[in-house]
């Protein structure tokens, strides 16, 4: 029965107050066109679930529509929209209707959702409403060859800066050099990889294997080079001519130079599977994170909070992305720059001072006495990029006699108190002696300041019964050494372990036994002496002040230590530093290893103006020749006061 016939067959008569309905044969006068609302709501429910089997379509089938929706949603994982019918436009006399659907995607924990409205045309066919199919039913302007994808949108990583705001770790232009396998393949790609490896000075066998394992259209990175890298200048033309080689410009977070404070600042790279797993869904594959150093410790602060972007993505047959349109974006939150105390001129001078010693690990640390700020913390080429400067654990040798002196002062000694300096001294069967060139005219009962100036081992060890190991440990803490503090960077403030062994206790007086320190430790010790109170090191400006020791350094005690350390520069082993204005100093050597005679670590600590310095050389005959040259070079170049 046609719609017109139905209309004409509807007759209503009022008989004695009752409504009497009559109808032509075979037709119910109650029959009327179905409302399009139910179909629109079924469509909304299907879009929300990804199953459109309950909806009739014009232009496609429920099976095909469902397949399209599921493919479109694949890139968003388990996320699905909330879809509701917000408006229906329909004239009862018309076979056409327009439904307005409102969609809401809760794509993140933020209060901002991706919302949109879509208008859907419906047509009445044989008493059933059909939805006119277009991909735009799923999302506005979505094309038939597009799918949805949600990607994190990270802000630019914040910089690590110095106190003046100058950028230390920041995005810098680099060239990523590698093999483009879309231009070479098979044996040709392997040969190109080996040639490129030779030009980049990397392992050719390993790189060729990496290229061989990559996909047929992959770009396989060989090396990332700064724009100023000498290798580019030397081999850039040859790389450009090599078939299959490709140089891609990029931005990468780097320090001022390859070595500049590298162990401290750290590096930035792609998150590992372990980091992703530990992040509790904060990180995803491809995210950039700090890998070590301050970049690692302050990664969350520096990387900020990602926003999200919804894209309509067009892919090729091989799955590669051919085109991408942004449909919605949630703003990211910028990271906060990290301010550090490193001084660019001082750090550069420190690294230059150590540059010539390539055989053995070396380090130099400079601390501003008044504030505890670490101005320079450098390692030499022989240290292999280790954290030796701030976190090394080495025997401090005779530089520890500064601590031993404080322990003696607390037992009543002054700079002029006489101590017995003998050629040798035996403690519980262990024979101790002075260094081989110790001056004979400085033997006998000598003042404490002379014992420090000429570094008489036996004079200090002779006091092992008067000063306990606990006394030494307490004196060390008063000078900023030996406490396990929660430093806001990778650092070590030394250790003076407790011991019941008499020989070990005796060795502690001269910075051996199990006593350990880093160059940072000894720079802090000198800074505390110079300031007259315990100095705490500061590297990261945003961190709070470290707690004071249980027994702080007293200014009167410190004055005695300063008198002793002046004597070192005036007449003792530190006279080499006098011409450049160094006022306080102490040398040190510490035996290590199994050689006979054993090798020795060489130390020199010094103070000038508001600067305290510690220099270390893993192998040196003495502090004067093995470590003092580093300090001389550093102070001349940095001109720190």
Automatic annotation (TrEMBL):
<feature type="signal peptide">
    <location>
        <begin position="1"/>
        <end position="25"/>
    </location>
</feature>
<dbReference type="InterPro" id="IPR036138">
    <property type="entry name" value="PBP_dimer_sf"/>
</dbReference>
<feature type="domain" description="NTF2-like N-terminal transpeptidase">
    <location>
        <begin position="36"/>
        <end position="145"/>
    </location>
</feature>
<comment type="similarity">
    <text>Belongs to the transpeptidase family.</text>
</comment>
<keyword id="KW-0732">Signal</keyword>
<dbReference type="InterPro" id="IPR005311">
    <property type="entry name" value="PBP_dimer"/>
</dbReference>
<protein>
    <submittedName>
        <fullName>Penicillin-binding transpeptidase domain-containing protein</fullName>
    </submittedName>
</protein>
<dbReference type="InterPro" id="IPR006311">
    <property type="entry name" value="TAT_signal"/>
</dbReference>
<dbReference type="InterPro" id="IPR001460">
    <property type="entry name" value="PCN-bd_Tpept"/>
</dbReference>
<dbReference type="InterPro" id="IPR012338">
    <property type="entry name" value="Beta-lactam/transpept-like"/>
</dbReference>
<dbReference type="InterPro" id="IPR050515">
    <property type="entry name" value="Beta-lactam/transpept"/>
</dbReference>
<feature type="domain" description="Penicillin-binding protein dimerisation">
    <location>
        <begin position="155"/>
        <end position="322"/>
    </location>
</feature>
<feature type="domain" description="Penicillin-binding protein transpeptidase">
    <location>
        <begin position="363"/>
        <end position="606"/>
    </location>
</feature>
<keyword id="KW-0472">Membrane</keyword>
<dbReference type="InterPro" id="IPR007887">
    <property type="entry name" value="MecA_N"/>
</dbReference>
<dbReference type="Pfam" id="PF05223">
    <property type="entry name" value="MecA_N"/>
</dbReference>
<dbReference type="Pfam" id="PF03717">
    <property type="entry name" value="PBP_dimer"/>
</dbReference>
<dbReference type="Pfam" id="PF00905">
    <property type="entry name" value="Transpeptidase"/>
</dbReference>
